[in-house]
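User: Continuing from earlier, I have the next pair ready.

Assistant: Great, send them over.

User: Here they are, in order.

Assistant: Folding the first of the pair now:
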Amino acid sequence: MANGILSKRAMRLCSYVVKVDTGFAPNPFGNFCTLAACTPNHQGIRLDKGDWLLGNSSAQKGRRLIFAMQVSQVLDFDDYFSASQFAGKKADASTWQGRCGDNIYFRDKAGGWAQGLAFTHTDRESRRKDTRYHKVFISDHFFYFGENAPEIPEAYSSLVRTTQGCCYKKHDPNTVREFIAWVEQYSTGVPLLINVDGVTGKTKLHGLPRDRDEGDRPTKFSNSGKRGGACQKLVDKPKGSERCKSSY
């Protein structure tokens, strides 16, 4: 298994359709690829260290690989928000990559979910879905292609998700292993020279998000990245918890 990661059970590969690829979900920036607020999270998919996530394009855009990542950690949103290691994943207004930050939820003093600085998923329904299972999948071993997504070979078509939802229980183990070996070939290739956060050089990114928004446009967002500050109110607040106000 890649990176020498061993599992007590058979390795799982979860596949799903990435309908919109803005850099938020998945978020491939900051030396980690993270998935905090998308279909696998909303469905409560159970993945552990060593398992894989595969995000492919929709049928309309062809059978292409947006990203593949091997899970290295699974954290609760509150632990993710508190960990200094992932401070770079918090939303930041200064760059378009920063506005894609997915480290946006934490527990307030009353134990309810609060939303810090965020440029997406600020509506009530998105926040409800995001915090239902409140787990983030983290990877330090990943392959992100975005707009340069390669076509997935026909031999692995059974792994490709073509409809809404996720699939990870019916994949043939041999096909999964062969697919991972195919993805791993990109480790020895030369990544694109792209500019990320002002630094140009070899990165783990083989492309930028297909649907990215690099423009400086006004966006509604909450204005706190700190506990106890102003924040978006969430729908699952326990009775008596502090209500927060958005900045707009």
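And the other member of the pair:
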Amino acid sequence: MFSAFFINRARFAMVISLVIIIAGVIAIQVLPVAQFPDIVPPQVSVQARYPGANAEVVVETVAAPIEAEVNGVDNMLYMPSTSDNNGSYRLDITFALGTDPDIAAVNVQNRVALATPTLPVDVTQQGVSVRKQSTNMLLMLNLISPNGTFDRLFLSNYMEINIRDALAHIPGVGEASQFGQLDYAMRIWLNPQVMTALGVSEAEVVDAIRRQNLQAAVGRLGAPPGNEGRAFTYSLQAQGRLTEVSEFEDILVRSNPDGSNIRLGDVARIELGAQTYDADPGALGRASSAGEQRRRGAGTGTAAVALDPAGDGVRLCGTADPGPRHRRRHRDGAARPSRPLTRRTGRGATGLHHQRQQ
């Protein structure tokens, strides 16, 4: 028999076994992460926003229709949701191990599409996002201004424009997001006393802004078929959306019969600020913008980060979860990283972590 050959040649069998062991030890170092078993259930996140609504209104008008449709989606385990007083809504659907996250996201998207017609118009205009995600946080970064040169609004927009996309493109990173993201917005503070005296309502102000702050396609001159005898065609351009405070102040709210005009600057104070101030991602008492990275999926290794952000006056510092392989126990029983997670460079910080190659 075949086994008798190795039984009669014990030394040869021992050499073959050692070769197999050595080959296995070498192969495990380059084994793709995707071949490891999934230990974290896949998760799909649904997010929406209802501007101006409190938590109770969000629950009744947004959460109830969406959850009624999503409930019972294939392989779903549970789905906790959060409704905040700032009008935001988040639903996290957790699926059973082994479920394809792409298929799960498509199934959830189809269920959300059934609930979309019953949502308020303001919610559908903002958009309802459906994304697959991992529950494992990979790295947290803080973009700070040590000298106080820049405020939170500038730092948040700098991270959104210049850093977040770069982090999201790193192999192994599934999602990069900000905590308390601050987007630039034109804030209009209405004066109720002046509006009452002039007889101006909020609906008039909103309607005037919508009619006069738009991007219009005005067409062309001399385009066929009505271009007989004309050698040129002219594409017309009109002023697009307003961008300056002075332009918003000139918005015409009402023209009175006596020839006088009421403009937006007469009934409101206008400033360029943040869209929302509900979150304060401050670090160490200083203005900062905090962001996080998440793994692309269960079992995926951690990505290395190397950034040189804004230069003078801005510093990027980060902390990461080192994982069980990079922790060591001490006499007091506390676990801490076995090596520093960040390293100072000339103008920024570099977050270091091991990553297996796909």
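Worth noting for the second one:
Residues 10-29 form the longest helix (20 residues). Residues 79 and 93 are 4 Å apart (CA to CA).
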